[in-house]
Amino acid sequence: MPIGRKQSRNARERRNRIITLRKRDGDICYLCGKLIDFANLDQASLDYRTIDHVKPVKYGGSDRQSNLKLAHRKCNQKRGSNTDAHLGL
Predict the structure, then answer these.
(1) What is the pTM of this model?
(2) Which domains, and CATH codes, for the chain?
(3) Residue 59: closest CA among 80, 32, 37, 38
(4) Which sign does the torsion angle of CA 30, 34, 40, 45 carry?
(5) pLDDT per position as a tens digit, 56-77
(6) Mean pLDDT of the chain
């Protein structure tokens, strides 16, 4: 498969995953509880949306929908690869 098709397939899968998470969880960052502005398309913005692994992959977390949540980039970066237990939450 040509690289361009694989990249577009990955982008399509990511877009579909975001749609599914929005339907399940609403447009709320699960880390701070504030609204995620999906009109913000600036990927460099700290308020840009990201998909976060609730249980980080490095601790055995998976890419299954049950382990994924939407978060602001700044919230996701602040949390890093820590779990709630590591953060004392």
Answers:
(1) 0.75
(2) 3-80 (1.10.30)
(3) 80
(4) negative
(5) 888 899 999 999 999 999 999 9
(6) 84
